């Protein structure tokens, strides 16, 4: 029996939605199982994205090392993970104080992790310090502090962990970086410079350590949207998984902590080398910056005057 032509599009939508839903469920299951028993270090576990990432890896059975500058927040995160999980299927996380603005204790931290686990399978560098101000208002001391947190801290930790990975000929570095590492914008001179520097370091590191079976992944994202997704008051988001995905991409600016944590988990499992998470405007800006730089500079300079374009591109 022939299918009426008016039914073809609805049927295709249903089929694609079903395939998309099944694919997501399979990927979610495989992602959790592939991190089981791995020693995963998260440099800033107490941030919104870091805590989401910790929750996903903990549920997947990873042996977590939760780092951060606040012991109270680390203990709170540790307790919430332990209280909400099955102790027979998960490991108790280890908490370690880590403050990249004071790097003297990094070697002690690495020694502590080595004595506890003997190795590091995945190092997730997600610590970051942000600042937005005209260049003439930023002191050199502030420039140096930003470079310590965003550049010297991560590379010092990476260099300390690297011998453990080379010995085992296995391991993965994951740099959670900003799109500012690829696209510089006004009023973020120090921040963008630190992000460019750390991006370059891990790009070089990727080539140098490939012979040892060590992978390096970088995730560049736009600003992290602290508001939960699908909170538009005047419109109800669709319930169909496929249409919900399209709706989210078209209406959401920035990236949610949960979406970024999910991407980190996928990147760890599939060893993706480079990921860019953004809405269409930064994508377009990156291509324009590469292909027509003079036009890009003119647009950004004009945007400084009214501030609108600069905010859209972040």
What does this structure look like?
This protein is α/β, with parallel strands linked by helices and 314 residues long. The chain has 11 helices and 9 strands. It has helices at 8-34, 48-59, 71-83, 106-117, 140-168, 189-209, 241-251, 257-270, 280-291, 293-306, 308-313, and strands at 39-42, 63-68, 94-97, 122-125, 171-178, 214-221, 224-225, 255-256, 274-277. The chain has a 7-stranded parallel sheet, with helices on both faces. Helix 2 (48-59) crosses helix 8.
What would you say about this model in short?
This protein is of the alpha/beta class and 314 residues long. The protein is 54% helix and 13% strand.
The residue ranges in which pLDDT falls below 50 over 5 or more consecutive positions are 229-234, 308-313
- Across the major sheet, the strand order is 3-2-1-4-5-6-9
Summarize the main sheet.
Answer: 7 strands, parallel
Which percent range fits the helix content? 40-55%
Q: Please report the number of helical segments.
A: 11
N- and C-termini, Cα separation: 54 Å
* Cα-based radius of gyration, to the nearest Å: 21 Å
Structural class: alpha/beta
**Average pLDDT level:** 84
